Amino acid sequence: MIFEILAVGIIVSAILALFLDEVVYSVAALSGIFLFTALLYYLNGAIYAAIFQFVVGIGTLSILFLSGEMLGDKTKKTSTAKTGGLIGAGVLLSLPAIFLSVSGQTAAGSNVDIGDALWNLRGIDVVLQAVVIFTIALGIGIVLYERRKK
Predict the structure, then answer these.
(1) Is 39 helix (H, G, I), strand (E, B) or coil?
(2) Which of 13, 44, 58, 108 is the most exposed place for a label (fewest CB within 10 A)?
(3) Taking the alpha carbons of 62, 132, 54, 93 in that order, is the dihedral positive or negative?
């Protein structure tokens, strides 16, 4: 049941991150996605992948928050009805994940733990993800520097 709750949290956070008008609130909703994803990794035994996901999420959020505040335009207040509708849509979209279960059996002949699959076997992906985040941070830093010069 905990996995279904985390799936609902990821879906609702993703919908809110996409459709909220205020940048700060969208970044806050995105933090929910990173947190719930890290919890899923942790509960599946991939502790190092969960820690890395959490740390990369914190770095990404700080970059997005700073760039959103510096470069974004201020918008007017959003209605609570729209926000409530978005949360309701997220809950409705996640109902299949709650009521339809997927078999927990692993494939025949598969002796790989999820922690090994996400960390040991795919270490290069983790390093490349860190490089992408660093490149984004560098790009946003350059944009902010150029904007300050004007």
Answers:
(1) helix
(2) 108
(3) positive
